[in-house]
Amino acid sequence: MLLERARHAYADWKKRPAGFSPAREGRRRARQARQIELPDNRLRLLTYNIQAGIASQGYGDMVAGSWKHLVGHTASRANIEGIADVLDHYDLVGLQEVDGGSLRSRNLNQLLHLAARGDFRFWHQQLNRNLGRFGQFSNGVLARVLPFHVEDHRLPGLPGRGAIVAQFGHPDEPLMIVIVHLALGEKYRNTQLAYLRDLLRGRRHVVVMGDFNCFGEHLLDSPLMELDLQLMDNVHYTYPSWAPDRHLDHILVSPSLEVNHTQTLSDCRLSDHLPMAMELTLPEALVAAAREAG
After folding, report:
1. Which of 74, 140, 193, 241 could bridge to 222 as Cys pair (CB 3.0-4.6 Å)?
2. What pLDDT is recorded for position 55?
3. Is position 23 within any domain?
4. How many CA atoms lie within 13 A of 231 on its CB side?
């Protein structure tokens, strides 16, 4: 049934009208929903840089297989189906390097396909680097509950880096979920972290997750730590997926959010990154306010 739903969603995508924008469509549906909604007090999160479904088994693959970033490979579709199976276990998913439909993804809008396959009620695509038919480099969010507001933010520095800010629950005291993909260079990355600090200052319930392209100790000295966000427990190596020795993907949370456990999905080698998972317990007052208003 899910596969059939995915086929119908893809057929609808192929028939999209001229000027269709996945980002605008996601925001339109969020505005239409206007629902004050949260899951039960447990929230299962996942962040994953999926490299457009291009699996790498070693550094040699990254060089010899670089053509896969320009022309789609048959294995990438199978990898996307494998990724869909992984996402099925989570309530809210942040994706980086998801392709919005180009040659390298075999003209498949990967985010829309994953949303349909996983039966996610909400999806939103942020197109950060538009190379036309050669690449639709995007961030994405998938959620089983509807946000009441979604924003795209172009991060300072070189083009191609962005953040998605989705707000859930009661507008007076929202749960802020931020999906990021930050710069490789420390100078631009710190500028981007300062931008996020200013954007989120004063918010009580915040989750920032994604591919930060830096180690946890670098985050400890960054402007973002002025928000008193908590780093993940221990070190969770996420890169490269075939022999991980670097913790580049992170989930940071406000002290109001109780972390039950965090995990690297070390057997999920469908990209050059490993996915990171976390389960949270939400404050009862936050959940109760959403229920009463809803």
Report:
1. 193
2. 74
3. no
4. 20
